[in-house]
Amino acid sequence: MDTNYMKYTEITDILKVLAHPIRMCLVKRILDQGQCNVSHMQTCLKVPQSTVSQHLQKLRYAGIIEGHRNGLEVNYKIRDERIKKLINSILMLS
Questions:
Q1: How far, in Å, CA of 36 to CA of 75, rounded?
Q2: Which of 14, 33, 71, 84 has the least CB density, counted as fewest CB within 10 Å?
Q3: pLDDT at position 17
Q4: Of 57, 34, 55, which is closest to residue 45 (Cα–Cα)?
Q5: Overall domain count for the chain
Q6: Domain of residue 55, residue span
Q7: CA dist., res. 14 & res. 80, Å (int)
Q8: How far is it, in rounded angstroms, from Cα 50 to Cα 90?
Q9: Residue 68's domain is classified under what CATH number?
């Protein structure tokens, strides 16, 4: 039996952040689009822009996504290939 449970800290922290329906939906949307901006996500989810921004902030702090400024808008993309594999496994995607 593996007794070094501390090595699982990073993945459990990521799973905690993803364990919210809006954040999971945001990550799925970004995966589907390759990258996405707040306005597009807000329109698709039909939630206030501030709600989307708060959830994106949590995803950014967890290292799941990263944003790239393009003029006035910020486009978000998945930061790590492992996250793509994890989400595809969770949602049973190819």
A1: 5
A2: 71
A3: 95
A4: 55
A5: 1
A6: 5-90
A7: 12
A8: 27
A9: 1.10.10.10
- Residue 94 CA to residue 12 CA, distance in Å, equals 23
User: DSSP character for 7?
Assistant: G
Phi-psi region of 9 (alpha: psi -120 to 50; beta: other; left: phi over 0): alpha
pTM score of the predicted model: 0.86
Surface-to-core class of residue 91, CB atoms within 10 Å of its CB (0-12 exposed, 13-18 middle, 19+ buried): exposed
Q: Where are the alpha helices (DSSP H) in 2-80?
A: 9-18, 21-33, 38-45, 49-61
In degrees and rounded to multiples of 5, residue 37 shows phi and psi of -105, 165
Phi/psi for 66 (5° steps) reads: -140, 150
| pLDDT tens for the chain, residues 1 to 94 | 677 788 788 889 999 999 999 999 999 999 999 999 998 888 888 899 999 999 999 999 999 999 999 898 899 999 988 888 988 888 876 5
